[in-house]
Amino acid sequence: MPWSTHKLGDLTPQQIEAWHKLHDQETALRSPFTTYGFCHAVDKVRGNVFASILENNGDIQAIFPFERRYSLIPGVARNTNSQLSDCFGMIGSARHSLDQGELLKHAGLSVFSFDHLPLQDNTFPVWQGTVSHGIRVEVPNFHDYVADLQRTKRKFVKEVERHRDQLVQRYGEITFQWQTARPVAELERLIDHKRSQYLKSGARDALKLPWARQLLLELLGAQHKNCEAILSTLYCGDTWVASNFALRTEQLLHIWFPVFNRDLRRFGPGHVLFFKLIESGADQGVRIVDFGGGVSAYKTKYSGIQYPLFKGCLRRINLLSAAHRVAQSVSWKIRALLSK
């Protein structure tokens, strides 16, 4: 079965439609981050996004998207926008028949680094790496979801309701917008508050570089099948309470960048927002809310299901791969020294 590798911008309408159809058939990989729309937005902002396509008698069997890390070293790549993506994998039914050397050879790569690969229903050719977990919450409908949550986390539900009532009493009636009417202004607010949060927590600033801001703007303004950007806001009266930038694919809503008003933190503003987000999403057909990678204390309050995610690296046996391994080892040692 022949493989071919293309710049993302050179894909034909038929190839893009095949990507949509293969994505619709996925289970664990049915995520906004594995869609053509997300990869297209990354390519528009950053460039260097490619797709290897496997065909059998003209029928597309699998699509392997990736981003070349360095234009001058095309043999080194990573999953598309690995710094911000929360899901990665090969789309299609033929991934079980490949070993890592064969896959990299067909894609013209020597090294491929990746993160956030779901292990469920996935046989991507990997065996060395690290495993973390994400959390997904199933919401058949909001009424039943809250009823179940009250049985297992009654104290938490009562606390959110109490905080919501306190916010209303102090600041005014709640106004929740599933999709804000002021996307540019609200996105600027979200980015500023998220970067401040990163600074206070000591976490890596994922929104520091200009292209990250451009990517969120691009996603908000784009119209792509299976990848819809949703910027939701919560106000009490004229007081901003919290916001969330999410990506949606069909019945799944992926929480991506939540932020809240730190002056209101004693009222649990993030949880008040999430309850409204889950309620509104359920009304619009969302049945799974994905909180993404990391098992934080606030995520576990929603009685979700943990799922494993894999991080690793595929390598061919050649000089470029060996040089990359040495450079990576030196980089890790320098980081360790600087962190002391």
Protein architecture, described:
The chain has 340 residues and is α+β, with helices and mostly antiparallel strands. The protein folds into 2 domains: 3-134 and 308-339, Aminopeptidase (3-Layer(aba) Sandwich), CATH 3.40.630; 140-286, 3-Layer(aba) Sandwich (Aminopeptidase). Helix content is 39%, strand content 30%. It is built from 10 helices and 13 strands. Strands 1, 2, 3, 4, 5, 6, 7, 8, 9, 10, 11, 12 and 13 form a 13-stranded mixed β-sheet that branches. The longest helix has 21 residues, at 319-339. The protein is elongated and about 65 Å long.
Task: Jot down its keywords.
10 helices; 340 residues; 2 domains; alpha+beta; elongated; Aminopeptidase; 13-stranded mixed β-sheet
Tell me the radius of gyration: 21 Å
- CATH C-level of the largest domain: Alpha Beta
In whole angstroms, the N-to-C terminal distance is: 51 Å
Query: Beta-strand level of the residues, as a percent range?
Result: 25-35%
Shape call: elongated
Number of E-type strands: 13
Spans of at least 5 consecutive residues whose pLDDT stays below 50 are: none
SSE string, helices as H and strands as E? EHHEEEEHEEHHEHHEEEHEHEH
Structural class: alpha+beta
CATH-derived architecture of the largest domain: 3-Layer(aba) Sandwich
Biggest sheet character: 13 strands, mixed
Helix content: 25-40%
The CATH topology label of the largest domain is Aminopeptidase
- How many helix segments? 10
